[in-house]
Amino acid sequence: MAAIRERKDQNGKVSYQAQVRIQGYPPQSKTFLRKTDAKQWAIQTETEIRTGMTIRKSLASKHTMRQMLERYRDTVLIDKAGGGKDHKTHIAWWIDELGPYALSEVTTDVVTRSIDKFKKTKTRLGTPPAPATVMRYMMALSHAFTVARKQWHWCESSPVENVQRPKIKNERTRYLTDQERADLLAACKASRNPDLYLVVLLAISTGMRKGEIMGMRWQDIHESAEQNFTRVHLTKTKNDKARSVLITSPALELLEARRKVVVEANKGKPAVGLIFPSSVDAEQPVDLRKPWLSALKAAAIEEFRFHDLRHTTASYLAMDGASLLSISKVLGHQTTKMTERYSHLATSHIDDVVRSMNAKKFGTLPKQETT
C-alpha cells in the first residue's frame, strides 16, 4: 500500500516522501519535490511489485527469508560441529540483509547486489573481507536454499546458483617448523588455561578441525584392547560425514588422565558430556580464543591461525612420505583435490621412489672411462 507524506525542513521547504509497503517485500521509499511525482512513482513501484508477485504464485511467496534462515539456523546448524557457531554469523548477516523479502522475490540480482555490499564492509582489522570469506557467506545462503528446496519444498530453485563466485587463491600451507612447534607447545603448557595444551596437541597429532575437537564427547571415544588403538568417532563434521580418528600418545595419555579426574569427581560414574566444556555452561565448549592468542604471542609465532595446525599435520604427513590419499583420509577430505596443496612437501618420498625404480631396473652402471 502506498502512502505520501509531506515534510518540511528547517527552512520551511516542502518535500514529499512516497512509501510503498507490501507484505513479503521490503519497504520502498523515495522523496520528491512535487507531490505529483511522488504519487506517480508510488503507483508505478506498487504495480511493478504486485505484477512480479502475481507471476510467482507458489510457496516461495508465502515464506520470507527470515523464516527460512531462522528455521535453517535452529534446525540444521544445530547439528553441525560446534553447533555451527561460525555459520550462525553468516546466517545472521543474511537475515539482516534480506530478512523482509519473500523467497520468490530473491533473485540472482538481489543476491549479487548484497554480495557486492558485503565486499565493501570492513573486518575487525579494518580490511575488506577476503574472497574465501565472501565465499563462505555465499555458501551458507546457498545451503539454506538447498535445504528449503529439497527438504521443505518452499522454493523451486536457488538464486545463488548463478551468482558469480569470487576467485580464491587458497593455497595457504603455513605450518609449524620443529622449533615453532616446540615453542608453541611450551607456551600452551605454561598457559593458565588447563585445556589449551591438550587441545593444541590433539590438533597437531590428529589433524582434526577445531570444531571437531571442541565437540568431542567422552562417549565418542572407543578403545580396542585386542587391536591396541583408541579412536574418537566424530558425528558432527564440516561435510556432515561421520569419521573415525586415531588418537595416540602423548595426547592419549593426557586424555586418559583427564578422564580419571572426571570419573573421580563423579564418584566413580563413567565420564560423559563434552571433554572440553565451558565452566559457565557444560553443554557449550570452552572458549580458547584469548589463551590461544596469548600462547602465540608468548611463542613469538606470527601469521598463524588455529586452522594452520591442521595444515601442520598434513605437512608433517607429506614430508614423512604419506600418500595424498592417506593424508586425505586423515583430514576427512571428500576428495584428494584439497590435499594436493601438500604434494610439493613429499619430494623426499618421491625421490626415494625414483631412486628405488632406477636401482631395480638399471642396477649400478659401470663408470665410463675418460680420455
If you had to describe this structure to a student in words, what would you say it looks like?
The structure is a single chain. The chain has 371 residues and is mainly α. The protein has helices at residues 35-55, 65-75, 85-98, 108-119, 131-150, 178-190, 196-206, 210-214, 251-265, 289-298, 308-319, 324-331, 347-362; strands at 2-8, 14-22, 25-32, 221-224, 229-234, 243-246. Strands 1-2-3 form a 3-stranded antiparallel beta sheet, covered by helices on one side. It has a 3-stranded antiparallel beta sheet with strand order 4-5-6, with no helix packed on it. 26% of the residues are buried.
What is the strand and helix layout of this fold?
Layout: E1 2-8, E2 14-22, E3 25-32, H1 35-55, H2 65-75, H3 85-98, H4 108-119, H5 131-150, H6 178-190, H7 196-206, H8 210-214, E4 221-224, E5 229-234, E6 243-246, H9 251-265, H10 289-298, H11 308-319, H12 324-331, H13 347-362
Antiparallel strand pairs: 1-2, 2-3, 4-5, 5-6
